[in-house]
Every structure is written in structure tokens, then in C-alpha cells.
Amino acid sequence: METTDSINPIEAISAAVEAQAHTTDIDMLAVKSVNDTLIDASREPDPEPLYDKLWYQGEVSCLFADSNIGKSLFAVQIAEGIAQRFRVLYLDCELSAKQFQDRYTNKKTGQLHRFPDNFFRATIVPARMDLKDWEDRILGNIEKAALQMKTPVIIVDNIGYLCNNAEKGQDAGTFMMKLLKLKQQYAWSILIIAHTPKRHAWAPITQNDLAGSKKLFNYFDSVFAIGLSSKDENFRFVKQLKVRYGGFSYGAGSVMVFELSKDDDMVRFNFLYTEPEKNHLSEPDDNDIIQRDMRVVELHKQGLNYRDIAAQVGISKSMVGKIIAKAEQSTPASTVDSVDKVDKVDDGGQNLFENQESE
């Protein structure tokens, strides 16, 4: 099935020509007045949402989750929906062909799930792997494959196979700039699947839960994550963590709730409703609270301010202040830096521990 793009090519070309007329090129820079920038941008077509309001055309986006949550299932489901309109290339570095087939086969009838013909799956051939200049080679192969298959939408599962040093800020930044170059050069839409380190089930999902350097998060256009609900083992929630186009529709106050269920020949994320994230987080036990408090004091000793501590631990700034104040009361002043005092802030309903009494 061939894809019909909703963007009028004549209008797009005309807008590009007019935009170029207002531009002064200076080596790597393109300079124009702010007013011309607004006028030229207004003549360009608006990007279409690829999946709800989580990922738009022309974005380098990221989906992350813990292991065995279902992020690959969700990514394939997203790809299947997009392939109804656009050609999609899915680089699968997780499953073998047999494992993929088993996942999308009706166990009772043996019927194979039928995906759109615009959906293409790519894998890395071990016999052809060459670790020398690996990052450039694999990105170059993705570029060639997308051009040959004419796929403007690319999904990579997962980032660990593209960037081996994602934990290092400089390497992560260089990798992301290479991805952004592909996006800008070809107007591609790219979704990168990533992991999260072990996290507490009582804590809200934050940008700090994305594995790797913080530079990764900074460079992505949009980021969303999957969490395991405490309500039911088959429930998942999806939370927006970063947007550049549009606004936050599924933040902490209104996450998307799904039920993971088998529909004949395919396990699907079936949307149920939206509600606050806190409804799907578990209650912390005494050990959780002790570990949390120790982490807060440790970060405070490292010199982090209250805002950064709150973001890393997943609690409010005022709660950070209460924990540190309690530690100062029970610890000699010389061992705890008390310079950073409690700020008065609006907790926004995100504090999970406000009902815990501080002795």
C-alpha cells in the first residue's frame, strides 16, 4: 500500500523558496529577522501528530521504560498505527525473527497477525558486524535503509545498540547531534526506545529516570515513558515528560492508562482513561522512607539544591527541606550543610509523603 502524504508538496516547496529568500547564510548559520522567521514559519504546514499528542512529525523523540514493562510492544503498536499513513522503518535489536513471529501469532489458530504493507522491520546481521567506528556505521546504515525504503518515520529499539557510551555526556551529545542532522536533512521523524535504571515504584517518573547522560534528554524534542500501575499487574500508564510542539496533555495530573491484553493474535495496549499518576504509584513502606531520606541527605551533602534533589528523588522541595531539617536536628552541625534553607513552594499535588509525620 502506498502512502499519500497530507502535506501539499507545492505549498511546501513555495514556502521553502520564500523562506530562503529572507535568509543570509553565514557558514553553518542561517540568519534572518525574527519577523521574517515568524512569517516564513507560518507558511509551512503544521506537523501532524504521529501518535496522539506524544510524538509529532519531524521530531526526534524518546520512549523509555523499565525492563519487562512492554515498551517494545508499545513501540510496535505505535509503528503499526503510523504505517496506516506513512512508511515506517523499525530497527529491531531486541527480538529474533522467530521471537517476533511468536509474539504476533494466534496460539490457538496459528494465524499470523497482518501488519500494514508500509511497515518494514530491519535487524543487525551479526556476521556483518564491525565494531570499528560502530556508531557512524550503524547510523549510516539506518540512513541508507530509510532512503532506499523511502521511510520518513524511523523507530530504533533500542538506543543501547546505537550509542555504547550514552552515560558519558560528550559522547551522548555527539550522538544526538548526528540524529538531529538526519532529522533536519531529510525531515524524518525518529523515535528512540531507551531503558530506565531501577526505580522506586512509589516515586513519580521524572526525566532523571532516563538511562544515560542528561544530555540525551536535553536534545530530544519530546519524551514519554511507560510506568507499571500499582492498581493491576496488567495496567500501564504513559506520561509525557517533554514537549516542544503543542502542550502537555498527559503530564502528572492526567496520565494515559492502558490495559495490556491479548487481542487474538497480538498483545495490545488498550486505552482505558486518563487520571493522576499518583493513583498508580505504590505506598512507600518504612524501608522505602529510610532509603529516600538517606538519598536526600546524601545529595544535599554533594551540594545539590532543593529543586534538583526533589527532581532526582521524586518528592516536593518542601519535603526535601523537612528531611534535611530532621537530619540536622539529629546530626552535628559540622556534618550537614544547612546553608540551603526550605523554600515555600506550591507542591502541585506531586508530594507523595506529605502525610508522613516528621518527628
What features would you describe in this structure?
This protein has a nine-stranded mixed sheet, with helices on both faces. The chain has a two-stranded antiparallel ribbon with strand order 1-2. It has a two-stranded antiparallel ribbon with strand order 3-4. The model is unreliable at 1-5 and 333-359 (pLDDT under 50). It starts with 8 loop residues before the first helix and ends in a 29-residue tail after the last helix. The chain folds into two domains: 47-280, P-loop containing nucleotide triphosphate hydrolases (Rossmann fold, 3-Layer(aba) Sandwich), CATH 3.40.50.300; 284-359, no CATH class. The chain has helices spanning 9-21, 34-43, 71-82, 97-103, 134-149, 169-186, 214-219, 286-301, 306-313, 317-330, and strands at residues 24-26, 29-31, 49-51, 55-56, 60-65, 88-92, 119-122, 153-157, 189-195, 222-228, 235-242, 255-263, 266-275. Helix content is 33%, strand content 20%. The protein has 359 residues and is of the alpha/beta class.
